[in-house]
Amino acid sequence: MPELSKRITTLNGDGSDGWGVFYRARDMIAAGEDVTELTIGEHDIRTDPAILRAMSESASGGHTGYAVVPGVQELRDAVAARVTTQTGVPTSRGNVMITPGGQSALFSAHMAVCQPGDVALYVDPYYATYPGVVRSAGALPRAVQTRSSQGFLPQRDELEAACGNAVSLLVNTPNNPTGAVYPRETLETIADVVQRHDMWLISDEVYDTQVWEGTHLSPRALPGMAERTLVVGSMSKSHAMTGSRVGWIVGPQAAIACLIDLATNTTYGVPGYIQDAALFALRSGDRLETEVAAPFRRRREIAAKVLAGHDSLRAIPAQGAMYLMLDIRRTGMSGEAFANALLDTHKIAVMPGESFGASAAGHVRIAMTVDDARFGTALKTVCAFADDMAKAA
Ligand code: PMP
User: Fold this and answer.
1) Contact at 8 Å (CB) between 353 and 364?
2) Closest atom of ligand 1 relative to the 41 alpha carbon
3) Which of 217, 238, 252, 328 has the greatest number of beta carbons closer than 10 A?
4) Residues in the chain with pLDDT < 70?
């Protein structure tokens, strides 16, 4: 076989990425073992039947040909209206392109702003694909470190230190994996830094409907930011539509026009019946979103009760998204060692913090994605296990 491109063979970087636990859990489940799976961000409910009916009716009605590449007008209008209402920033169809999920939007955004070899920043801990997304666009990923003791919020000094010759900064609020919802001051600092360094901001807001504490603020709404921000949105998390692959990118019209050229040459758009289902979901108002978010809100409260009184663990305040980040350093173990031992001893699978970057070492991330009773029981076991490990340390 002739050589493959460096771009594709080096996508995942090198070194240990902490995903061993995840694959081991998958193997155990395949072998019939009863593993409590708290690793990835997949809802334990399915897409609402009413959304599926809208999808089916659209497909049966003939919307199975090529859909227009930027997205059907009604859906672009609905996204624009939603963004305008939520942020107060006047947004119209020309600011919106529909994408096959947030993942594709993340890639497209970096393609739009990075030249080959440019440095693109992202905040550590990060959603696992970020460095690979940057490499896919031919750019060089550079992490901005944060601290557990500061709730994993990026600070001015670290941002400034990372900025040298960077063209973009990728932030994610509400955050996966930490559950942080960035407060206004953090976003203002970010806005100030990217403006002074004339950088783009790529704002991943796919968890914007899952906020338990504080309020979600889109940095695109801050003064001077609409012209340098590309927002990534998705129906995956808000409407339990992960498999439908529908999301969007919102930004300046000139950027969207170029992104449409990129889509014409890559994805060629999103299936029309999927877009009609998304349109139905968005037109259904808050009800569907609230229903999808409710289990995580409940489980976060269950977790607070279970965690109280266990000082071998420290929970990072889970203000949003579907995860719980636990600092397990008092056990003297790495996140990876803890997660492996927990899987071996109790058949509970959690993600080592290390899989989300160096800043999350000594932590584990727990996805709140099994039913309430099982979740509560599993978390009690995690706490008891951490207490035992801390005593032995
Ligand atoms: N951003 C974040 C922070 C995520 O957690 C995910 C999915 N887990 C995505 C983007 C991509 O989601 P999708 O492509 O399903 O919209």
Assistant:
1) yes
2) 8
3) 328
4) 14-17
pLDDT digits (tens, 9 = 90+) for 19-34: 889 999 999 999 999 9
By DSSP bridging, strand 229-234 and strand 247-250 are antiparallel
Ligand 1: list residues with CB < 6 Å.
Answer: 41, 101-103, 127, 172, 176, 204, 206, 234, 236, 242, 247
Distant-in-sequence, close-in-space partners of 362: CB < 8 Å, separation ≥ 6: 148, 327, 328, 329, 333, 334, 335, 353
Rounded to the nearest whole angstrom, what is the distance from the C-alpha of residue 88 to the centroid of ligand 1? 24
Q: Distance, CA 330 to ligand 1 centroid (Å)?
A: 31
Phi/psi of residue 344, nearest 5 degrees: -65, -45
Render pLDDT for 218-268 as a digit per residue (tens, 0 to 9): 999 999 999 999 999 999 999 999 999 999 999 999 999 999 999 999 999
The domains spanning 6-46+287-392 and 65-285 adopt the same CATH topology: no
Architecture of domain 6-46+287-392: Alpha-Beta Complex (3.90)
Residue owning the nearest CA to atom 4 of ligand 1: 127
Distance 3 CA to ligand 1 centre (A): 31
Indicate the domain borders of the chain.
6-46+287-392, 65-285
Tell me which architecture the domain covering 65-285 has in CATH.
3-Layer(aba) Sandwich (3.40)
Q: What is the C-alpha to C-alpha distance for residues 174 and 321, in angstroms, rounded to an integer?
A: 6
Mutate to test the pocket of ligand 1, among 47, 127, 369 (most ligand atoms within 8 A of CB): 127
Q: Which amino acid is at 378?
A: A
Provide the strand spans (E) within 194-263: 200-204, 229-234, 247-250
* 217 HSE (CA, 13 A, CB side): 16
Spatial contact of 68 and 270, defined as CB atoms under 8 Å apart: no
pLDDT at residue 257, as a whole number: 98
Span 172-201, pLDDT tens digits: 999 999 999 999 999 999 999 999 999 999
Distance from the CA of 108 to the center of ligand 1, in angstroms?
A: 14
How many C-beta atoms lie closer than 10 Å to residue 391's C-beta? 9
| Ligand 1 centre distance from Cα of residue 276 (Å) | 21
Q: Which amino acid is at 106?
A: L
CA distance 346 to 337: 14
Find the angle CA(138)-CA(181)-CA(228) to the nearest 5 degrees.
45
